């Protein structure tokens, strides 16, 4: 299992960024990702979105 963490500040509206991030997979252009499960998702007191997802790959 590979553990991966990433943090980035996007210069776009909140709705655009969160919608794009949650719809990224599954993606017909990248068939190696076959499933995504959300393990935990919350917004912390500083208004950061934390999303812990499990990606299943081939």
TrEMBL record:
InterPro entries, sorted: PRELI/MSF1_dom, Slowmo/Ups
Gene Ontology, cellular component aspect: mitochondrial intermembrane space
Residue ranges constituting the PRELI/MSF1 domain according to the UniProt record: 1-58
Protein name: PRELI domain containing protein 3B
The species this protein was found in: Sciurus carolinensis (Eastern gray squirrel)
């Amino acid at each position: 299992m590979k553990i991966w963490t990433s943090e980035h500040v996007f210069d776009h509206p909140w709705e655009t960024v969160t919608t794009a991030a949650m719809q990224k997979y599954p993606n017909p252009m990248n068939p190696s990702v076959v499933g995504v499960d959300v393990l935990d998702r919350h917004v912390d007191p500083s208004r950061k979105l934390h999303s812990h997802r499990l990606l299943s790959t081939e």
